[in-house]
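Running this now, will post back.
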Amino acid sequence: MGMGCLWGRKKITLYEFVKDKFGGKMKKKVVITGMGVAAPNAHGLDAFSAALRMGRSGIRHIKELEDLNFACQVGGVPENFEAVRRSYFDHEKLMSINDNIGYASVAAMDAWRDAGFDVPDGESEDVDWDTGVILGSGIGGMDTIARTVVPMVNAGRVRRMGSRIVEQVMNSGTSARIAGLLALGNQVTSNSSACSTGNEAIIDAMWRIRMGLAKRMLAGGSEGASPYIWSGFDAMRVICRKFNDDPERASRPLSASAAGFVPGAGGAVLVLEDLETAQRRGARIYAEVAGGAVNCGGQRWSGSMTAPNPEGVRRCIRQALTDAAISPWEIQAINGHLTATYADPMEVKNWAEALERTPADFPFINSTKSMIGHCLGAAGAIESVAVVLQLYGGFLHPSVNSEDIHPEIEAFTDKIPRQALEMPELRVIAKAGFGFGDVNSCLIFKKLE
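Update: finished.
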């Protein structure tokens, strides 16, 4: 059966289709009970929520990029994070926590406490066998490799590197560190799927809980701030170079004057939990992770390493709807991938086709990247926290710098908030991530009913 049949000629809803497909047995509900975020425009949920409502940018001029002769000399980096990190960890732990692992670890500890748990004593022998973590990055410990490993190896000083290097540069360093901090004994792994990393981690965690293999999972993504991470994108000429003297205007998703994405860094973690377990312990529930899907366009048709196959994008959206058992008309808002590149108009058109909705009845669509830049492997996680905060708080944040809507999507202008909208009626938001390599992800978040 083609996807169009689900809500087309047969006139049945996705809910009815999924209910029939599963023999009337609905899947175990997965809810969010805690969150933590270290974003370029704020650290912590209250500050981040306020920044979103205000449309506050975290994009600033970065002197190091100017000194290194980058064309793009702006970026989104969490402010004063060195002081934040030192307030969380003692000297011994700081020796093995670089930026990437630091953002992830701080966000994880914040999320754990927000969910109502205590950070365990490091001397305790107890292990939480019911909880795991899936948290990845796009590029990871490149700064440690460039600043420490390569110079010391080239200088013949391998024996002076110490024993903490491996855990900072291995791809699973983020999840491994968090497992140690919180004594987690379920699945502990790190994924990497470019810009879809954070979304994919949440989806994988959701499925593990649904299958009854864990009661709760921490999921998210992180990315360090380093010219060694961003240099390749600067060489590709895909990051913004036209607003070096006006950083807060540099990230311009959906705009006719968009000039490329702004590189960013940070981390975010969500605590996912099965509904029964959460209710049994009286946990606060922010929202339900109703469904999700991942796929790849195969780099065919117009898809490539850097551009999405439109059919792959549309299929991913429809599969997420099917998994969530909701109809396209239930989507009230979309938090897009929307990076401020030529792909933005194509993304909006793909959403319209996938949802079978016209500009007149299209959902609202916004871009968190307009305020924080593109945080690469952390993007999906930080933006998912933004989505949940909007659902929980009943508002939609603005897409800043989108005053000149791209002419190809001018018909959608009224659906792009340029200032915060109070929307207590918000019930369903879709979150997208379309990454390097033609990989796609889509999440459906709902208010718990």
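The chain has 17 helices and 15 strands. More later if anyone needs it.
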